[in-house]
Automatic annotation (TrEMBL):
Keyword match Zinc-finger: yes
GO biological process: ribosome biogenesis
Biased composition (Polar residues): 30-50
Family classification: Belongs to the ZNF593/BUD20 C2H2-type zinc-finger protein family.
Domain Matrin-type: 100-130
Entry protein name: Matrin-type domain-containing protein
GO cellular component: cytoplasm; nucleus
Pfam families, A to Z: zf-C2H2_jaz (PF12171)
Lineage: Eukaryota, Fungi, Dikarya, Ascomycota, Pezizomycotina
Gene3D superfamilies: Classic Zinc Finger
Region (Disordered): 25-90, 133-154
Species per Swiss-Prot/TrEMBL record: Monilinia laxa (Brown rot fungus)
Keywords: Cytoplasm, Metal-binding, Nucleus, Ribosome biogenesis, Zinc, Zinc-finger
Amino acid sequence: MAKKSIGSSKVDEITLQYLLGTSDPIQAPIKSTGQNKSDQSRTSASQQVTMGIPQKSTKTKTRRRLRDLDQISADLRSPKHLAQHKSSKAAEDLPGLGKWYCIQCAKWYESENSMVSHLRGKPHKRRVKALKEGPYTQRDAEAAIGQGPADNGARNKALNVEVEMENSAFLDDQET
């Protein structure tokens, strides 16, 4: 019979308890013997999965979420729309007390220096280029999934233009 490692005996014990119905291995904490420190670190990491916050990654992503391109293009077209967005945030909570704001990127900056360096950077230039193309519309979304009217381009009408051929003199001789 082959030698069993310490970790496999724990697994066998937990499996046996689960099969007998005495405990649930998912909810029951794994008791460590203290012989292997790496087993203890893995155990504590598995018990701290979300720390009481369900779907923590989703919450973090929404915290960093910026405005969409259609909202930003509305800001550029209408100063009233931009003023409404700026007034929704308290100036004390914003970086630099809300003095330096990049409309195209929808970001606040701490100082004029950081704002100027941002305006020279690639992310800002990419955003300006994306905004020149125009905001997304429902028609674009339907075309992307294959619905909506087909865009076959403008149809060419038959042109009534006489074309002179290279051998037109030869054809004229044969007709007479």
